[in-house]
Amino acid sequence: MNWLDNIKWDAQGLVPVIAQENSTGDVLMFAWMNREALQKTAELGRAVYFSRSRNKLWFKGEESGHVQTVHDIRLDCDNDVVLLKVTQQGHEPGIACHTGRHSCFFQRLDGAAWQAVDPVLKDPESIYK
C-alpha cells in the first residue's frame, strides 16, 4: 500500500495541513493539500499546497520567495490532518502570511474585538507584484 493511502482525504480529495516552525514551535499557517501536493512536498523537501481558490498546486513562495523547507511530515491520530515542521525562508524572521507577518495567526481576541498583535515585517505590496 502507498503511504498516501493511509490518509483520510475529504470529499474533495484534500487534507488540512498545519505548518509549524521547526525552531520555535510557532504555528505559521493552515492550508490544504491534495495527493499530488503532499507527494511533491515529500519528494522536494519544500511545502507544496493546493490552492482551492485557484484550483491548482501552490508552491509556497513561488511569488513571494517565502519558501518553506520541510523537516518533518506528521499525520495525526485520526489520519485526517497533516503537520509540517518547516523552516520559513525569505526574510528574518520568516514571513509565512500574505499580510507580511511571520504567522497567519496574528489576531487575538481582546474582549469582544480582534486585535492585530504581531507586526507587519514587510509591506505586502512589495512582496506581491
What does this molecule look like?
There is one protein chain. This protein is mainly beta. It has a single domain (3-94), classed as Roll (Ubiquitin-like (UB roll)). The protein is built from two helices and eight strands. The strands form three sheets. A four-stranded mixed beta sheet has the order 2-1-6-5, covered by helices on one side. The chain has a two-stranded antiparallel sheet with strand order 3-4. The longest helix has 10 residues, at 35-44. It is globular, with a radius of gyration of 15 Å.
Number of domains: 1
Distance between the termini: 43 Å
CATH class call? Alpha Beta
Strand proportion: 25-35%
Radius of gyration: 15 Å
Q: Structural class, from secondary structure content?
A: mainly beta
Overall mean pLDDT: 93
Question: Summarize this, please?
Answer:
This protein is mainly beta and 129 residues long. The protein is built from two helices and eight strands; from the N terminus they run ββαββββββα.
List the topology elements.
Layout: E1 15-21, E2 27-33, H1 35-44, E3 48-51, E4 56-59, E5 68-75, E6 82-88, E7 107-110, E8 113-116, H2 124-127
Parallel strand pairs: 1-6
Antiparallel strand pairs: 1-2, 3-4, 5-6, 7-8
Descriptive terms for the model:
11% helix, single chain, 8 strands, four-stranded mixed β-sheet, two-stranded antiparallel sheet, Ubiquitin-like (UB roll), mainly beta
